[in-house]
Each structure stands twice: as structure tokens, then as C-alpha cells.
Amino acid sequence: MSRCRSWSPVQRYGLAAYRRYSGSGGYPNIPLSSPLPGVPSPTFASVDGLEKSETRITTLENGLRVASQNKFGQFCTVGILVNSGSRHETKYPSGIAHFLEKLAFSVSIAFSNSPILLHVFLCRDTTMYAISAEVKGLDTVVSLLSDAVLQPRLLDEEIEMTQMAVRFELEDLNMRPDPEPLLTEMIHAAAYRGNTVGLPRFCPGDNVDKIDQAVLHGYLRSYYCPQRMVLAGVGIEHEQLVKCARRYLLNTRPVWGEATPTDVDLSVAQYTGGIVKMEKDMSDVSLGPTPIPELAHIMIGLESCSFLEDDFIPFAVLNMMMGGGGSFSAGGPGKGMFTRLYLNVLNRHHWMYNATAYHHSYEDSGLLCIHASADPRQLREMVEIITREFIQMAGTPGEMELERAKTQLKSMLMMNLESRPVVFEDVGRQVLSTGKRKLPHELCALISESGSPEHIASPLRCCAASRRWRHWETSRSCPPSNTSRLPCPARMGACRAPTACSGRPRGPPLPRTPTTIYVHKP
């Protein structure tokens, strides 16, 4: 024991443990900003030439656009985005896009021990086919995408299996405790009654047996053409992606034959407004011994703007400012605690289960919505509270509140773009809609420069001011469906015809604000 006491600290703890760079021993009085003596200087990578985050775009001879974003890593995400969705089913039975989503990648193809991940995503105006795989398998990935998009087999047994899958999904949708998908479907049906983005996203039950191979080929012939497609990739070299695109997508003959699209729907979204109500008996649906609470869900919305307009960024900031969440958690400890719906609604009314703001934006219109949930006996008071929040949106926000919303929006943007599939979707959607891509630092600059508090509130005041155009609708019918950009009164929702191409006078007046009411009844 006495021998151990005579050891020096170096002998007792070892040289590595004893060396203290910031203490009194080892290297005393050396600030943290100065290099340590005897330690080699670090060598950092340098960026030469063009910016490495630049998105490169090439248009092939057949009109197909190829866009790539280089990103360091062993894996890549490559896919095809098509300007096609449920809003383009005006001349076809509703549900074709839903069928195509289920039929995608239905044929199994062998791969040479390369791990892949298939993605199929459908929204109201875009269909996305994507694959995540190793970079060395890019040739195989583009070949698979070409087969899935341009040469689907659509066999009778595949269509029959898809019909069963669609019926099961519709049954599951009506029994799901989470009402958000159904509420989103209902708010679009109320806001754009019978036209464009108001058409059903899911296949109606009556149309399941009406969709066959001939109907699918007719739809694909009209919308699945190279001019309406973008091949996007993240994590690969642009020249390599263009080479694969020329090999598999330039001269490939589609299974439905070569034909010039003639039945393309160019209808512009016509905001109608309306109310959709649904009462459901959830007494026989439960996730466990505890029954689902009896709740009334409402979603109230106003027409906003398209993502091509200058007001898109202010509306995004406004949506972030409203925020919200559930009564138990607003997205995590401290997240969303200073948003208006959390401070003014969830904090003050203990009986509110949920209050969340959403913003849906398309190429010709948009919706700013608030979803709220409470006991059915509190339905009237809940509607009054949410309506009051809409009215207060038109007021001028505080400087601190506005800066906090801008910072949260930029933080959410940068956090989401850390994911490779999200970057792929961002590249594909921007190139498909605008032909170019705004980089993250450009979007952050637009958010910072989105204006003063008065400028943030002005878009909503403009929507409310569209009521003064009601005299315009009494003497005019609906504009033609091929109008590329409508006059201001029609864009603000003054035209209330049931469809964009009917040309008939409007029907009975409908409420200006789309409202969805959905009640759980145990």
C-alpha cells in the first residue's frame, strides 16, 4: 500500500488520463482558441468550382426533364414524378390514380443482391415513383422505373388483387380512429365541389368494378407522356443519370402505344365553398379495452394561394404562427408552445382535444385550414373559438411572434432537407412545376424577407375582401376550362359553378368558408 502511495500521478493513472490541456498541468495558460503545441494542424476539404449543392437540369429530346442533386453517401434516391393525380380525373371514373398507386411495382424483378427500397406516393396533382438503392445499382434502378411507369403489365389478376386492396383500404379508412385523412378529403370536397382538387383522392366504392385495363390505358395515354414527367435523383452524378435516362426513357415505347395526348384536363381550380357533414358510429371500433372517446371533429378553412404566387411564403409563415397540436403534446417538449392555437385555444379551454393548422397549396389555388376536436356538446363553442382565431389572423402580429414563426419555419425546412428522400421530392416537385429549383438558402432568404407584420396579415385580408366581388358572379357564368390564369374575382373564389367547364350559371349561394364536421358517436 505504501508503494502505491509513492507512485506519481502519471504512474497511477497513465499518461493519457493525466494529460490535462485546459487545467494547471500539461500545457498551462494556453487559450482554447490557440493550437496545442506538438499537435499537427488539421487539413480541411476545399470546395472548388461551382457550388456543390447546385441542382442540374437537362431536357431530353422527347421533353423529359432530368434533374439531379449531388449528395455524399453510398446510397441514392432516384424516381419519376408525373404531373398526374386525382384532380385530372374529370373525364374518367374517379379512383384511377388510386388504382395506379396500388399497381405500381406489382411485377417482381430480381436484383443482384442490391438492397432497395420502393416508394410510391400519390397526391392530388402528382404521382411519384421512387427507389432508394446503392449508387452502383443506378442502371438497374432506372430500368425498373422505366418498366413500372411506361410498361406496366396490368394483368387481370393484378387488377383483381388491386380491387380487393382498394376495398380493404376504404373499409379501413372508415374505421380508423385518426380522422385526419378523412377530414382532408372532406375539406377539399367542400371547398372545390366537383372540380379539380375537390375530386375524391380515394376511389369511391361504386367505381371499384368500373376500372379495368382499357380505362387505365386510356388515362395513361393522356397523362403519362415525357413532357409531363421529371426523372430526379439525389446522391448521383448528373452525367450518369442522363446517360441512363437516354438508355431507358428516351426511345422506350409505352405499353399503351404511341399517341398524342388529346384528353388532357386543363381545368383551373374553382373555389365554391360549402359544408360537408358526417356522423359515424364508432361503438364497435376500439384499439383496446378502453373505447374511443366520443368526439366531434371540425375543419374550417379559407382559400389561400398557389405555390407559384408571391404570397405563398407569407401564408407558410402564417401557418407556422398558428401552429397548434394535441392537448397532451404539441409535437414534443416545448415544441409549438408559443403558437397561437396553443396559447389561445389549448391553454385556455381544457375541453379541447386538438387544434392544428394546415396549409394545402397547389399550382392554381390553396387552402388554409384549422382542425379542432372536442366533445360534441361543445361543438358550437368550438366553432366560435376557431372562427375567432381566423378573424384574429387578419390583425397585425407582434414583431417577436413573427420572428419566432420565421425561425421555426426555417428550422423545420432545414431539418426536413437532411433526409435524402425529402430532398428528392423537393427537387422533383420544384422542377416539375416551375422548371427550376430554389436552393435552401434562397428559401431561407425569402422567409427572412417575407415582410413586416402588416405584410404577413395582408394575404388573409385579401381573401376576406373577395366578398365584395359577389356582384361579379351574379352576371357571369363559369370561365372556360382552358383558361390559364383567371381574373382576380374568379381566382378569389367568386365563381361558384359546380365544375370548371360546365359554363352554366351558378346554383344556390353557398357559404364562403368550406366547413367539415365529423362526429364520432359511440
Structure write-up:
It is a single chain. The chain has 522 residues and is of the alpha+beta class. It folds into two domains: 55-248, Metalloenzyme, LuxS/M16 peptidase-like (Cytochrome Bc1 Complex, Chain A, domain 1, 2-Layer Sandwich); 275-521, Metalloenzyme, LuxS/M16 peptidase-like (Cytochrome Bc1 Complex, Chain A, domain 1, 2-Layer Sandwich). 35% of the residues lie in helices and 16% in strands. It has 18 helices and twelve strands. A six-stranded mixed sheet has the order 1-2-6-3-5-4, sandwiched between helices. The protein has a six-stranded mixed sheet with strand order 7-12-8-11-10-9, with helices on both faces. β4 (116-122) and β5 form a beta hairpin. The protein is globular, with a radius of gyration of 28 Å. It starts with a helix and ends with a strand. Mean pLDDT is 79; it is low at 108-114 and 464-511.
